[in-house]
């Protein structure tokens, strides 16, 4: 295997969504964790339903819909202020502490890098800006270009197209196991950043490599290149 | 609107999946509810991932995969015996108490009826048999025929094809809101059996009608036909 480029998932992989749960807890004491979890699940569920039914809508809006539903389901009174704070959090998520250093090292090794995310372009620009990461990525790819969310093949095809490489020569990195599995099915070489020490999804497919954080990814890339 | 046939979702709509939670609680005291919920969520998640990635596998197997994952995630030791009991429960789920009477009344009104389910044919045959419902349905349709799960259009297309009717003239009935919404997007006239009094999914689409149980469905069909 010869990795010539890396495509990163954004939310949960590069950027830490933990602060959303913290803010939810502040707004809805004792219910923050439940809200953050249901919100995330609904957000992803809606992307899949809209992809299967060809009813695409940008991630920002889907995320907002999921928040509204989750509050109704949990019986929480979502004021406009609370909605704006929670949504606004997405624009300023912090990168995990080791990430910037690892990304710079990977860049130093001559690897081309991209973000490949469900997020719409405006969301991605904002969070990349907020983390001073503009110099790092050659491309910021949003599924908005194809109006289908991951794990649709059309979404995964964005990185091979823009790099002019076969998926096998691109390392796809995600902390979402379903995303790493979908990318493996698609044909990428894959690395699952299993930060939560979760069990592997029972999908009959295994990412090529797994590690606990981005430092483990750096180590994996180094070893892969030495083994060539 | 002129309803000439009805297509029913199976699990949760015709057949009560509550007994699965009861059995799970017996096998894993204090954890039954959590297992039943995660199992159901994973089961549906896997059908969607496999549909988006064209990696279809029959519902029985997907259901088993979801059970295995859920137990790993919750740290429950799933023996083969426990696995067989839980899976076996799907084959003998009881219909909701009002269902047989309502189905017979609908049949008496001259309506053609079908099941349109994610379940594979063997599972559906077993549960229809167990409930003595063979005389009721003109067709038992499984998405296995198209190797794509609901909410894929190819899955919903099965009933219009077999009835030779447009989707608008078929009433699609489901207790899963996402299924009722997907069917509405597809073009069916739809009825959401909202047994749990859940909020409507925030998908920008609303089923044509909603009721608390199958008796409400019967009332809706009667009124629709009188209004013609």
Report helical residue fraction of chain A: 40-55%
How many extended strands of chain A? 6
Mean pLDDT of chain A: 96
Radius of gyration of chain A from CA coordinates? 17 Å
Strand arrangement within the widest β-sheet of chain A reads 3-2-1-4-5-6
- Subunit organisation of the chains: homodimer
By secondary-structure content and strand pairing, the structural class of chain A works out as alpha/beta
Q: What is the architecture of the largest domain in chain A at the second tier of CATH? A: 3-Layer(aba) Sandwich
Q: Largest interface, with Cβ-Cβ < 8 Å?
A: A-B, 33 and 33 residues
What form of chain A results from the Cα inertia axes?
Answer: globular
Strand content of chain A: 5-15%
Summed up, the helix count of chain A is: 10
The run of helices and strands of chain A is EHHHHHEHEHHEHEEH
Descriptors for this entry?
48% helix, 6 strands, globular, 228 residues, homodimer, 10 helices, alpha/beta, DNA polymerase, domain 1, Rossmann fold, 2 domains
Set out the fold topology.
2 copies of one chain form a homodimer.
Chain A: E1 5-8, H1 18-27, H2 32-52, H3 59-74, H4 80-89, H5 99-108, E2 112-117, H6 121-130, E3 139-142, H7 153-156, H8 158-163, E4 170-174, H9 177-186, E5 189-193, E6 209-211, H10 214-226
Parallel strand pairs in A: 1-2, 1-4, 2-3, 4-5, 5-6
Textual characterization of the structure:
- Two copies of one chain form a homodimer.
- The first copy, chain A, is an alpha/beta fold.
- Chain A has two domains: 5-15 and 93-226, 3-Layer(aba) Sandwich (Rossmann fold); 18-91, DNA polymerase, domain 1.
- Helix content of chain A is 48%, strand content 12%.
- Chain A is built from ten helices and six strands.
- The first copy, chain A, has helices at 18-27, 32-52, 59-74, 80-89, 99-108, 121-130, 153-156, 158-163, 177-186, 214-226; strands at residues 5-8, 112-117, 139-142, 170-174, 189-193, 209-211.
- The first copy, chain A, has a six-stranded parallel sheet, sandwiched between helices.
- In chain A, helix 6 (121-130) links the parallel strand 2 and strand 3 (139-142).
- The longest helix of chain A is centred in the first third of the chain and has 21 residues, at 32-52.
- The interface between A and B is medium-sized, with 33 and 33 residues.
């Amino acid at each position: 295997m010869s990795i010539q480029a890396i495509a990163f998932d954004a939310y949960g992989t590069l950027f830490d969504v933990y602060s959303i749960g913290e803010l939810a807890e502040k707004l809805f004491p004792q219910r923050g964790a439940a809200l953050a979890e249901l919100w995330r699940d609904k957000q992803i569920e809606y992307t899949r339903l809209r992809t299967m039914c060809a009813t695409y809508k940008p991630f920002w809006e889907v995320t907002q819909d999921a928040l509204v539903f989750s509050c109704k389901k949990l019986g929480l009174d979502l004021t406009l202020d609370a909605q704006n704070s929670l949504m606004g959090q997405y624009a300023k998520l912090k990168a995990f502490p080791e990430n910037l250093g690892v990304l710079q090292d990977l860049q130093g090794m001559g690897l081309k890098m991209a973000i490949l995310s469900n997020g719409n372009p405006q969301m991605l620009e904002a969070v990349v800006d907020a983390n001073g990461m503009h110099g790092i990525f050659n491309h910021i790819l949003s599924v908005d270009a194809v109006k289908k969310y991951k794990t649709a093949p059309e979404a995964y095809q964005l990185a091979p197209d823009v790099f002019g490489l076969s998926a096998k020569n691109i390392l796809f990195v995600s902390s979402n196991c379903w995303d790493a599995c979908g990318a493996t099915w698609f044909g990428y070489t894959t690395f699952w950043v299993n930060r939560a020490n979760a069990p592997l999804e029972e999908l009959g497919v295994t990412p090529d490599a797994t590690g606990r954080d981005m430092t483990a990814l750096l180590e994996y890339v180094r070893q892969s290149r030495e083994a060539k």
